[in-house]
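Design job #97: recover the sequence.
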């Protein structure tokens, strides 16, 4: 019987592969910004905060994943946009405080190392970093045979991803929601679809045939990265609150920034809900309340500001080719209503 090695156990010796290292290093370097210091393949990453130009910086951090949208990527064997979703889910949370994303790290775990799959995922991560203006400074690839198992042998090996983002904002410019008052306007910004939320439900209501076809391809549309348009709004206008409409939809996310004692009233007829949401609702027999509590319904991000600034805000968003609508207002009655 031959002697066992780590590679025979299912874990390739990646750190000793020059070709693999060069490929990874090249993708990482393509995202680098002036603040990045040190060796791309070192044990840890250094970043020079002074290079940001922020006078009195507060660090802001966020972490997230993509959820079971990963299973859709496996079903369609299309992995090049999942990394965009991963970055988006992190940096879109980060900017709700008015922070600028500085750097990003990713974690990829699978039971089997597949060069094509991880390469496509990483391409998406670097694309997402470039879109958000932050640097990919490192990450971790964990190969755990026997831990990640899957019976669908015809698909890519089962894998999971997680992202970690760090940004900074000037102490005097933090967006907290504390200045929000009754009568302020809720301005909704278009989404690209379901983003990366609710896929466990979506995978239940659509058949595998539908998920392998046009419906699946539509559902795999990557999450919009709102960094540049939202930061442009913050720089040009007195934005009082920013809400990322993710899991929990409108009912759970809006109260996270609205001061105690106030609420939000939304008019669902004020924007056109994309057809894919109606298709999903019909396919699953889902109630209106459940739809607005689970999905973004075509509004991926919300900013709260005074009515007199709405027209200017919409002009800024239009310059980024984003549609926006006055979807509601802040009320003196607590809670969220969608009518």
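Job complete. Output follows.
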């Amino acid at each position: 019987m031959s002697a066992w090695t780590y590679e025979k156990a299912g874990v390739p010796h990646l750190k000793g592969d020059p070709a693999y290292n060069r490929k990874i290093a090249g993708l990482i370097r393509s995202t680098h910004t002036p603040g990045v210091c040190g060796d791309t393949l070192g044990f840890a990453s250094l970043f020079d905060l002074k290079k940001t130009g922020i006078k009195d910086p507060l660090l802001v951090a966020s972490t997230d994943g993509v959820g079971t949208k990963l299973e859709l990527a496996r079903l369609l064997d299309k992995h090049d946009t999942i990394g965009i979703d991963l970055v988006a889910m992190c940096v879109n949370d980060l900017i709700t405080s008015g922070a600028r994303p500085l750097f990003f790290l990713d974690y990829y775990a699978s039971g089997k190392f597949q060069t094509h799959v991880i390469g496509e995922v990483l391409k998406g991560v670097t694309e997402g970093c470039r879109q958000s203006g932050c640097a990919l400074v490192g990450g971790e690839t964990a190969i755990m045979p026997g831990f990640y198992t899957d019976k669908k042998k015809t698909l890519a090996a089962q894998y999971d991803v997680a992202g970690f983002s760090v940004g900074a904002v000037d102490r005097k410019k933090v967006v907290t929601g504390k200045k929000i008052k009754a009568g302020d306007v809720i301005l909704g910004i278009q989404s690209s679809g379901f983003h990366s939320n609710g896929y466990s439900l979506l995978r239940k209501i659509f058949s595998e045939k539908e998920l392998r076809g046009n419906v699946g391809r539509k559902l795999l549309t990557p999450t919009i990265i709102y960094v540049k348009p939202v930061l442009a709004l913050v720089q040009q206008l007195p934005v009082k609150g920013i809400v990322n409409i993710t899991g929990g939809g409108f009912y759970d996310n809006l109260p996270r920034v609205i001061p105690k004692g106030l609420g939000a009233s939304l008019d669902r007829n004020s924007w056109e809900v994309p057809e894919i949401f109606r298709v999903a609702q019909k396919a699953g027999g889902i109630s209106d309340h459940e739809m607005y509590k689970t999905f973004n319904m075509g509004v991926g991000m919300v900013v709260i500001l005074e009515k007199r600034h709405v027209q200017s805000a919409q002009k800024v968003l239009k310059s980024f080719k984003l549609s926006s609508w006055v979807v509601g207002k802040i009320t003196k009655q607590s809670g969220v209503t969608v009518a």
